[in-house]
Design goal:
There is one protein chain. This protein has one domain: Alpha-Beta Complex (Spore Coat Polysaccharide Biosynthesis Protein SpsA, Chain A), CATH 3.90.550. Helices cover 43% and strands 18% of the residues. It has a 7-stranded mixed sheet, with helices on both faces.
Length: 246
């Protein structure tokens, strides 16, 4: 009887209408899994309506090492992450995007680099996007500044991917985490309130090659994300001492 090998890292990747990037993403993930049997990937079909469901159904047997789960109706990026978290089995969790603007291999390489620290210390590892435009950097830095003013917590590049952290936070993310892109801010504030250090590493941010940006990739998207984040900040301000942060 074969014994299952305990995984060291679970990586959740929500995918909403990313069929143009999906083939390359799955090939990259599959190649990683061939070389790393201590890692698991959970790809979440986050209610896609672009043929993703049919594509995965036809090709699922080609990628037997990858876990595929499906959200029937898209509720939001955060909801897709939370759904994927339910299928993780490792002590260390990560999430990132499916748009290939961050190299999945970089996620694995930095996990390996910081693995001892994550295991022994109260620390979250996150990417900080470099080589971005002044326009994009302005929006990112502005949100970080507002968070600092309101919560007295310094966090750079709130939506920078990936996030790599201990599974001890999963239950509260599932119970209290928002269903949209503010889930990144929620996690970072959560770990800060629990006296975790946030360690950043620079990652080259690539241009999107296929499909449309779903979050803050366009000016309108950035405005919507900013408004949603400000509303969420106001909501959290009145609950920042609540037991959910402890």
């Amino acid at each position: 009887m074969s014994l299952s090998i305990k995984k060291d890292l679970s990586i959740v990747i929500p995918s909403y209408n990313e069929i143009g990037n999906l083939k390359k993403l799955l090939n990259q993930v599959n190649n990683i899994l061939i070389k790393n049997n201590n890692i698991e990937f959970i790809i979440v079909n986050n209610g896609s309506i672009d043929g993703t469901k049919e594509y995965l159904k036809i090709n699922k047997h080609i990628f037997p090492k990858i876990k595929f789960v499906t959200v029937k109706k898209n509720i939001g990026y955060g909801h897709g992450i939370k759904y994927g978290l339910k299928f993780t089995t490792s002590d260390i969790i990560s999430w990132t995007h499916a748009d290939l603007q961050i190299d999945i291999n970089d996620v694995v390489n930095h996990f390996k680099k910081y693995f001892p620290k994550i295991k022994k210390k109260k620390i979250l590892i996150k990417g900080r996007r470099i080589n971005r435009s002044i326009f994009n950097t302005f929006f990112t830095d502005s949100m970080s500044f507002i968070v600092y003013l309101i919560f007295n917590v310094k966090i750079n590049d709130i939506n920078g991917q990936p996030k790599i952290f201990s599974k001890v936070f999963v239950d509260k993310i599932l119970k209290y985490g928002p269903n949209d892109f503010t889930i990144d801010l929620f996690l970072l504030l959560l770990v800060k309130k629990n006296n975790y250090m946030i360690k950043e590493f620079p990652l080259k941010f690539k241009n999107r090659l296929n499909d449309k940006a779903k979050g803050g990739g366009t000016f309108i998207g950035k405005v919507k994300l900013t408004i949603a984040t400000l509303k969420f900040i106001c909501l959290l301000k009145f609950n920042f001492s609540h037991k959910l942060w402890k």
